[in-house]
Amino acid sequence: MVWDLTTIDYGERGTVLVVPGTEAMAVAAAQSLISVSETAATQTRRALVALSGGSTPKRMGQLLAEAPYRDRVKWEHLELFWGDERWVPLDDPESNAGEAKRGFLDHVPIPPDQVHAWDTTVDPESSAAAYVDTLRSAMQQNNTGAFDLILLGMGDDGHTASLFPGTAAIHESQRLAVSHEVPKLAAMRLTFAPVLINAAAKVIFLVGGAGKADMLHTVLDGPIDIDTYPSQVVRPASGDLEWLVDAAAAARLERTTNHG
Length: 260
Hints:
- By secondary structure, this protein is an alpha/beta fold.
- 28% of the residues lie in helices and 21% in strands.
- It has 7 helices and 11 strands.
- The protein has helices at residues 22-42, 55-64, 69-72, 96-103, 124-141, 194-197, 213-221, and strands at 6-9, 15-19, 47-51, 78-82, 84-86, 149-153, 177-182, 187-192, 202-207, 240-246, 258-259.
- The longest helix has 21 residues, at 22-42.
């Protein structure tokens, strides 16, 4: 599929790619995963990819479970993780990993031991520590200190992954992943820490819908305030940062646009 793609250069805040709607976003996200798997295959290794929850990743998964997308992915060259998780069982509809497994991973030929869900059967601290061990092991086995691709969403309050406004996890600089309580949700969450996200070769935010327009404008056009708008903490040290958004979400952005 080909669309009229608009690019907006936000310098250190990333490059915004505007597509017509959420279906185009899902297709572009699927193509990004295909691309990293193909690159990893040429290098005879596995690409480390972190998935996220949300409606666009769910639609992306549906596409990847069907031809022609399913047949283009080099599944044996992918190692999948989740950038964050809710503290619920894997079979709960709120589980990011559970929904992805049921929605598409159980229907594609990826080896099960290359899919790494957070363990929510133990206490949160143990789960986060175990995930860090799994992350380090995968990086060592693939001779990389970074993820190839991390997909993120952005909440109406500016949070990303499970880095919520006013939480200490935003400033975590030692651990790769943490468990923490999010007071506004009265719930435990598991999440990648900024140090891991910002080491990635590529980070893509998926932001769609008119309801996100005001916050996207604030995050990209407004002053930096990571405690209030945690999405602003994402600033890859040497990787690429892209914002894949639909026209509705991009409606209030102020930068000059370039059509490509």
